[in-house]
Design goal:
This protein is mostly helical and about 140 residues long. It contains 4 helices and no strands. α3 packs antiparallel against α4.
């Protein structure tokens, strides 16, 4: 039972990070400038939408485990950036951190909880896709 509590705690902490990611990407999309800013802004908005979907999946899994999803926002993940290079570097670092956090959670998930296991695998894949794409933009 203590392990379930620890897993729920980790899931809620990453949910709070996803809440912050949505806000961060949405804000970065609004403020980015430069020659390719329109295309990059559009992509950042799409990634913000992905982060909102991640949060929804996490809420569903937390509820399925008998927990209560957090409505908090991880304030340390709200990092401002106003130029393209800073925005990309912030988000690349945050994506790397998310991959590490999800990987840690994946190791905590009992193998018989296939839905949660696959959900976390899918989230890791999405975050890796985001990281690769952001890296190519830099």
């Amino acid at each position: 039972m203590a392990n379930d509590f620890n897993l729920l705690d980790k899931l809620n902490r990453i949910l709070e990070q996803e809440h912050a990611c949505y806000i961060r990407y949405s804000t970065h999309a609004a403020v980015v400038t430069g020659p390719s800013s329109e295309a990059i802004s559009s992509r950042l908005k799409e990634i913000a939408g992905d982060e909102a979907k991640h949060a929804a999946k996490l809420r569903d899994r937390i509820i399925a485990l008998g927990g209560k999803p957090s409505m908090n926002v991880s304030l340390e993940d709200l990092k401002a950036g106003y130029d393209l290079e800073t925005i990309l570097k912030i988000n690349m670092r945050e994506e790397s951190d998310a991959i590490a956090a999800y990987t840690e959670i994946l190791h905590m998930v009992p193998k018989d909880n296939i839905i949660l296991y696959r959900t976390i695998e899918d989230l890791i894949e999405d975050e890796q896709d985001h990281l690769e794409e952001l890296s190519s933009l830099l």
